[in-house]
Amino acid sequence: MSKDEIITIIAEHVRAVVPTLEAHQFSHDDKLKELGANSVDRSEILMMTMESLSLKISLVDLASARNIGELAGILREKLQSS
Amino acid sequence: MRSVGIESMNIFAGSASLDVKKLAEHRQLDTARFDNLLMKEKTVTLPYEDPITFGVNAARPLIDALSPQERDRIEMVITSTESAFDFGKSMSTYIHYHLGLNRNCRLFELKNACYSGVAGLQMAINFILSQTSPGAKALVVATDISRFIVEEGGNALTEDWSFAEPSSGAGAVAMLVSEQSYVFQVDVGANGYYGYEVMDTCRPAPDSEAGDADLSLLAYLDCSENAFLEYQKRVDGVDYATSFSYLAFHTPFGGMVKGAHRNLMRKVVKASPEQIEEDFERRVVPGLAYCQRVGNIMGATAMLSLASTIDNGNFESPKRIGVFSYGSGCCSEFFSGVVGLEGQNRIRSMMIDDQLKVRYELSMEEYDELLKGSSALKFGTRNLRLDTGFVPQARNIHAKETLFLKEIKEFHREYEWVS
User: Fold this and answer.
1) A-contacting residues in B 57-76 (Cβ below 8 Å)
2) Distances (CA, A) of B309 to B14, B167, B260, B289, B360
3) Could you tell me if B305 and B251 are in contact, meaning their C-beta atoms sit under 8 angstroms apart?
4) Which residue of chain B has the CA closest to A51?
5) Residue B205: phi, psi to the nearest 5?
6) With a cut of 50, which residues of chain B have pLDDT below it?
7) What was the pLDDT predicted at B157?
8) pLDDT tens for residues B299-317?
9) Least buried of A15, B63, B234, B253, by fewest C-beta within 10 Å?
10) d(CA B346, CA B5)
11) In a domain? residue A80
12) Which residues of B participate in catalysis according to the annotation?
């Protein structure tokens, strides 16, 4: 799965959690916090994304991502090694 | 199997509170999605309050209810805290003194962030189960205050930390543990624990806290799942949806609990969003009620949620409660016990709801003044007479004898009973 495909999946869940972002065009540099997602929203987005990807890893491993691009990068790495 | 559990239990959540929605507005935080954090009020420590006054005020009604013979069987006083003001001397020594307990008693303190209260409870349970001193009782006092001033410099530990201020409370839970498990009968051996090293939130300097909100939340979610899975391995026939009538969670703020519950219901129970919402309202919300009014009281929070569950749930027939504790750093535990009508009546006799209602509501001006002035009571203060003139009306708000800090003399803290 490509990084862009993963970003599309992340974006889908961000829109579900923060409905005001319905029309937002997501980019690699987007930060969830700056998009108005609080810490509970962010964890929710991560959990939903992991479920969509059928990925079973420790959530703590995702905490270092600073933007959506980096998050997609970590997820892609985990997918490849799982 | 010998019965063991909580004989009696009380909380003390201070004399002053703050409306945290007003605080968030006052701090100009982004409040657009504030409501889903499920926070309402928090207890604020007044200049003449500290972890000792909270702990003693919580424990005193439990001790007063005992006969002298029963009181003398308290052979262990554990303080569970991350707010101690001395690296060596345990706060349990002060609490033991102000409660007038028997000197043939073990006095010590436990730490692991918000897990400390449950760590203390489990140690007390094991002491009773060991039968090394048949008939003995143990007093566990989980007591904590907030130090939310962010450590300056560096950026790893400051991200989105602003929401820590509205969620950080102060207070204590006291539990008498014995073979008379009137309030909460422990399911012996039904424990799932899970811990590992992670730098999520911490108190790396004497008067401040630091934390990474995302990392902490993710570690909490990770642990709530893995601690339960371990419990399930050890206990036959456990079903997350049906084995527990109620779930009491460590509650840094309600929104975090909601996320953890949703995660487990989705993964373990495969429940639909509607089922999850109904289940949350029915099994989890009774335990959030007091936590939402006191704020996060760290080591005491999981047990505050248990008290809230017992007070606000329906126990006409005995019910099993699942309890989850998480402490940053981190260690966590899922365990369970059974509560009946007698347990609820004993908790209700403590009038916790009334105790929370009478707290003096601070204005933002008073609160800000307190933050500036609180620098007076720094870690390591050698000599100080406390200012009793700050919101003096809070001093007799509970309409009964309440312990307050009077003076620090050569590091020794001196207290007074005020009524």
Assistant:
1) none
2) 20, 20, 17, 8, 24
3) yes
4) B267
5) -135, 160
6) 150-151, 156-159
7) 44
8) 999 999 999 999 999 999 9
9) B234
10) 14
11) no
12) 82, 114, 250
What CATH number does residue B321 fall under? Answer: 3.40.47.10
Cα distance between residue B326 and residue B204, in whole Å: 19
List the CATH number of the domain containing A11: 1.10.1200.10
In sign, the C-alpha dihedral spanning B335, B341, B346, B350 is positive
Token couple for B41: 């009020």
Instruction: Note whether residue A33 is domain-resident.
Output: yes
Rounded to whole angstroms, how far apart are CA atoms B407 and B234?
A: 50
CB B336 within 8 A of CB B190: yes
The token duo for B30 is 């982004």
Express each pLDDT in A11-63 by its tens digit: 999 999 998 999 999 999 999 988 988 888 899 999 999 989 999 888 889 98
Residue B298 Cα, gap to closest chain A Cα (Å): 19
Whole-number Cα distances in Å, B254 to B15, B249, B279, B290: 22, 9, 15, 11
Q: Into how many domains does chain A fold?
A: 1
pLDDT at B206: 80
Beta-carbon contacts of B63 under 8 Å, excluding residues fewer than 6 positions away, are B71, B74, B99, B100, B101, B139
Q: How close is the nearest chain A Cα to the Cα of B293, in Å?
A: 19
Short-list B130, B93, B95, B87, CA closest to B108: B93
Domain boundaries, position B26 = 5-418
Q: Are the CB atoms for B38 and B292 separated by under 8 Å?
A: yes
Helices (H), B175-300: 213-234, 254-264, 273-279, 285-288, 291-294
- Please determine, for residue A74, whether its predicted confidence score (pLDDT) is greater than 90: yes
Nearest-Cα residue of chain B relative to residue A48: B263
The answer to whether B65 touches B8, Cβ cutoff 8 Å, is yes
> Residue A81 domain-assigned?
no
Nearest-neighbour CA in chain A from B319: distance (Å): 30
Spatial distance between the Cα atoms of B176 and B120, rounded to a whole number of angstroms: 11
ipTM, two decimals, is: 0.88
Q: Is B388 exposed, middle or buried (0-12, 13-18, 19+ CB in 10 A)?
A: middle
Q: Is residue A82 part of a domain?
A: no
CB contact under 8 A, B215 and A63: yes
Question: Which residue, among A27, A20, A37, A24, has the nearest Cα to A4 in the 3D structure?
Answer: A27
pLDDT at B1: 63
Closest CA to A46 of B319, B199, A37, B401: A37
Supply the pLDDT for residue B159.
41
Q: Per the structure, how many domains does chain B have? A: 1
Cis peptide bond N-terminal to B330, omega within 30 = yes
B43 touches B19 (CB < 8 A): no
Rg of chain A (C-alpha set): 12
CB-CB neighbors (< 8 A) of B30 in chain A: 36, 38
